[in-house]
Amino acid sequence: MAANRRPTLADVAREVGVSAKTVSRVLNEDGYASARTREQVLAAVAKLGFQPNLMARNIRVGGPDTTIGLVVPDLGNPFFGAVAGSIEDTVRDRGLTLLMGSSADDPDRERALTDKFLARRVSILMVVPSVGADHSHLKAHRAAGLPVVFIDRPGAGLSTDSVVSSNRAGAHDGVAHLIAHGHRRIAFIGDLPTKLYTRRERLAGYRSALQEAGLPSDRSLVTNAHDQQGASAVTRRLLSLPEPPTALFAGNNIVALGIVTELARSARKDIAVVAFDDVPLAEVLEPALTVVAQNPEEIGRAAAAAALARLDGDRSRARTITVPTRLIARGSGESPAPARQEA
Amino acid sequence: MAANRRPTLADVAREVGVSAKTVSRVLNEDGYASARTREQVLAAVAKLGFQPNLMARNIRVGGPDTTIGLVVPDLGNPFFGAVAGSIEDTVRDRGLTLLMGSSADDPDRERALTDKFLARRVSILMVVPSVGADHSHLKAHRAAGLPVVFIDRPGAGLSTDSVVSSNRAGAHDGVAHLIAHGHRRIAFIGDLPTKLYTRRERLAGYRSALQEAGLPSDRSLVTNAHDQQGASAVTRRLLSLPEPPTALFAGNNIVALGIVTELARSARKDIAVVAFDDVPLAEVLEPALTVVAQNPEEIGRAAAAAALARLDGDRSRARTITVPTRLIARGSGESPAPARQEA
DNA sequence: TTGAAAGCGCTAACAT
DNA sequence: ATGTTAGCGCTTTCAA
């Protein structure tokens, strides 16, 4: 009783007294079958609890499997969860299913996952590339018709479709917002590692906003953190500088949590904050948190749409789709007008 | 150039001038192969970019596929994201990969997903069951050795392992905390639909805490909401009651967001709140939000461990694993001591 | 140490 | 309207 074989097409055929092919025809609604046979087959299928073996089918049909391989840094990060949900929504009626794994931003783990997905002959491969990962090994697959899409960051060594946020423009807008409200010493707390694409782009936006306003760029105000605790520590350090910043720009949602937590702990409501990426309860904070919101749903949708178009024969050259961010001013970027700094 | 066939074992064999079986042996390190052949084979594999077709392999070997099918209500919900991440961590060195899909709490979508997963011959099936879904169709698979685990809620029509939070005890503790701080009119805002297991359990905990304290249970204080906006509206309605509650108990994280948002909007810091499930920034709110924290990592770990044990031959009877919750008192459940209600 | 043949569960291509 | 044969890419079984 333990591990009895699952019934096969042949079992169903034997039960009814027809050939395997007839059962196949009925189940796939391919070709003709008499009403009587159809009924009998369906009855036998139900009786035996038969479920066609999709792997066997795929092998015979020869096409790719009806799965999408998706590699993200962290399954628990709500941003990537939202992206994944949106991809699923977009591909559901094509019958595609998500095969997911997390890389922890480790190139080796990323490679292991993509190799596994390729061995499964996924229909589409989507990757949030890790820093240091090389993707030239995917060239042949792409050439053979496998749609490959990079999400959130461009990949290295392979020219293919990618979908990213408007990191630079978004960060620029956020910092410009702070400048417009009188801030002149604005610190940047970015992602780690510093080579991360998103960090570099957002930092570039920060710098361009300062430059545009004719403000000096103080290297001691450009910092990094890779988790919430780290961001809190950096915040503390920045505020104890001889000439502390009057405003902080958070390079991502995790950093934002660390900043906000630290400011609350030290009761510093006089420090302005703008964060890249929205966080829950932002509007409830005091002051409410101003953010440069990303659009994970649209990122997922765009990535899926691009991949499906490739699957449908789109042979145009690789595109980079930039999904706009949106500045949501809630207060924390305005209050208070900083006192004039003394030199 | 577009869709040229991926190389097969036979292609590699032809390239080297050996039989397919020899190549297979080298790649699977099964049986003997001369150093020379091994080298040649490996070289040809690299040259052709050969990757064994896992589906074909599985079909021949006959065993289940190295995937875990996981059905959750919503890929974007961080709670389920954390559970999924924890499952992945636990099964990674067994070489298992996650096949994921969201049901939107719709029994039909849930069934479609589980059927698909079964057709793929997943090694393990894990489901967060939707209200109204029946799982008796899984009996045969379970009997045939497929580990099935229900997560967050028990399933219907099938006795199998399940992993849930200590919903009843947790809710009891949260409400008792409010009572201990002087509250006597405490409202419950639960999940929807009202048949949802988690809502029923948490409501039972709420009721038992009231009973234990000799407090009357006022039906007008037991309410529901199924999204953040709904929870805000319910909060508004409760506070405009002739005899409004002095404290609110949130039945889940989404409801908590709605309550907190509405209280902030109406500047009602006099209302105490305890929420089931933790939310980011809870400690930064004013007052900081007291919660009954769940442990999604442990839920995922326990679910995966139970399933792996079954895979390894554990034939003991179905267990329900209850993962403890933890009351984290941060302030919102204490302040202020309510004024004595006037009859 | 290697190979040939058979077969996993299914369907394409041709029968009939 | 149904059946037969062959074969997808791989591994098992047996032989050499």
UniProtKB/TrEMBL annotation, chains A, B:
User: Annotated Gene Ontology MF terms?
Assistant: DNA-binding transcription factor activity; transcription cis-regulatory region binding
Q: Which residues form the HTH lacI-type domain?
A: 7-61
Which keywords label this protein? Answer: DNA-binding, Transcription, Transcription regulation
The protein's matches in PROSITE patterns, at most eight in alphabetical order, are given as: HTH_LACI_1, HTH_LACI_2
User: Domain of life of the organism in this record?
Assistant: Bacteria
One matching Pfam family: LacI
What is the name listed in the Swiss-Prot or TrEMBL entry for this protein?
LacI family transcriptional regulator
Q: What species is this protein from?
A: Streptomyces spiralis
